[in-house]
Amino acid sequence: MSKRFDNKVVVITGAGGGLGQTSAVLFAREGAHLVLTDINEEGLKESAALVEEAGSTCSTHVFDIMDESEIEAFAKEICAKHDKIDVLYNNAGAAYGEVTKMVDDMNQEKWLRYLSLNTVSPMLLARAMRSSLSNAKGLILNQSSMASYAPATVYGVTKAALNSMTYGMANVFSAEGIRVNAIAPGIMETPANKEGLTAETYARVQGMQLSDIHGTAEDIANLAVFLASEEGRFINCDVINCDAGNRLRAWRN
Ligand SMILES: NC(=O)c1ccc[n+]([C@@H]2O[C@H](COP(=O)([O-])OP(=O)(O)OC[C@H]3O[C@@H](n4cnc5c(N)ncnc54)[C@H](O)[C@@H]3O)[C@@H](O)[C@H]2O)c1
């Protein structure tokens, strides 16, 4: 039986765990060939095994997404191998730890580091992979956050800038038939998220949702698959929220 992503190539950054790993599995179930990248080699091995278990194939690539020369070397290799790339899912990012601080705790070097990782690297990678994305009339998907609507931390600022970057990228790439969207997740349970937040903070943020349900990595991965599918073809230059209404309360508090 044919699957929705048979003969399609999907590149996911930050695929060594959490939302990136779960998305890899869901795309694999739909028949996609995965190209998985991360700085975490062990996590990538685990993801590759899960992709295989889901009945598909992948390659794995360990590199630092903040290093422009490594981005370019990866893109050159992968575009030479795949003339058409259907999806670039820019999921890698820093969300926990010192990135959740703001004015008094951050010097210029740190600000630039997190902007480089969360905001600029998605654009650099997309630009470097432009030829194969263009050949496929593919989709670029940036992983934003509901924190982008209340940028009270470095993290929120980098994701707010990523929303703007998404619109700017769409303005450029759409002429080549490439759609560009972002997903803004709410609080979704991932190992990094559980470890990065105290139980009290997790419960408090979850308690701001309008819908009293638990957010999972599958909720985000399902949305990514939909946006990348034929059914999502009319959605371009947008930030799609997936947060059970959380952002509304975050604004009000
Ligand atoms: N889980 C949530 O509740 C949530 C909510 C909103 C947004 N997000 C966003 O979703 C994405 C994934 O979050 P997650 O919860 O799965 O966390 P995670 O830490 O498991 O995922 C981030 C991945 O990015 C990789 N990475 C970090 N720096 C890198 C670098 N320099 N080069 C290459 N790879 C690097 C990490 O190794 C990790 O595998 C992040 O962009 C995060 O901001 C998550």
TrEMBL record:
GO terms for molecular function: oxidoreductase activity. Pfam families: adh_short_C2. Keywords: NAD, Oxidoreductase. SUPFAM superfamilies: NAD(P)-binding Rossmann-fold domains (SSF51735). The keyword Glycoprotein does not apply. The keyword ATP-binding does not apply. Belongs to the short-chain dehydrogenases/reductases (SDR) family. This is SDR family oxidoreductase. It comes from Pseudomaricurvus hydrocarbonicus.
